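Weekly structure sync, notes
Attendees: PL (lead), two postdocs, one rotation student
Agenda item 3: pending single-chain targets
PL asked that the sequence for the first pending target be pasted directly into the notes so everyone works from the same version. It is reproduced below exactly as submitted, 408 residues in total.
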Amino acid sequence: MRTLAPLMLCVALGLVACGSPIVGEECKSGLTACSGMCVDTSADYQNCGACGHDCGAFLCVQGVCSNAPRLDGGGPDAGDSGVDSGLDGSVIGTGMSDASFDPNPGLGGCRIGEQACGGTCSDPDSDHDNCGSCGHACPANQSCSLGFCQPACDSGLFPCRGGCLDFRTNPTSCGDCGVNCISGICEAGSCADALPGYAVVIGHDMVSANDAIRRLAGSAVFLARGNPVRVLAYRGDSDPKSILGVERAINFEKTESGRAWQRIDAIETIVPLQLRDADVFVIYPQQTARKSTLQKLGKQWGNALAQFVSTGGVVVLFEGPSTTNDGTFRVLEPAKIFSALGRHAEADHQTLNVVGVGFSIAMHLPRRYVDQPNTSSFQGVSTPGTTIVEDTSKQPVVIERVIVPNGP
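Predicted structure, written out during the meeting:
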């Protein structure tokens, strides 16, 4: 029993250093001796990259402290740090931590899967008085399911595909008809499928792009799950050359990854409804939009966007120069997904540094690349996020935020 105790302790604590690491008086290949223990500095949050470099409440990814909180919630300030602990030298943003992101900002816009009907948000799949479309009411003795009127069910049950189900516990119709829980667990109408969401803000307008920029932009879109990836794309007041550049980047990464994608054109007034059937929301640079228009869209979409990223969705926003607004990113501010004081036009063809080592969108990038015309950096970022690409003055050009869900 004496020889088994250390192993039992290792299993109980999940220590990276365990597994008979000592060979003679040295550590096994790939491990490093730290304070009398052999540890994997590529993954040990207490010795991340080097002995004694503690990531606190955050994961160690390939020897670098990430901005994803540890699953055990450890650390003295876990979930309440107020600062996004990103890469060394690239910590930006203050305020709430990603683990405490509020999916309910309380704005006036509709939530995911809803549309405005007579000034009220309505779910066309289940609203008795607006079944399938605004104003289409079901008879008094029928209910609405998947946008169609069907015979009513007993109390506590809801119509679904010709039957009556309990949406509170049914893992194949959890919260609504046809919502399948990957985990097989439905609790109080919510799937136990919580996955992190992502927000990526890219300071390239994509009118001109080299392979490094295309790979970065495409990788951001393919953070989304699914095959094909359903891309809800908002054109608005974007330069057609930017739209073409973004789509070329997605196709570039499509070839590299072997995954497919499907574009859905976003309709401004029903974006919250469309987000229900999307994996990623792409916002092209809004070069000719007014600031007031972007702020209005942000309030109109804010509730749905916050809910989207807090339930595993991906938002990718591209920035571009404009004389009518001070940043396309203003669309994300009402939902508190991303906020900054402003943007700054970078000098053409300067060298940018890829500092987001360990993050998937930077996995296949060179450590440096030359920017293209109309590149922007972001000034005074006040929301959590990790700098992936920075300019020579260490101002962020590409920022990624991982949003940890609070759900079951």
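Discussion points:
- Residues 291-309 form the longest helix (19 residues).
- The chain is about 15% helix and 25% strand.
Action: rotation student to compare against the earlier draft before next sync.
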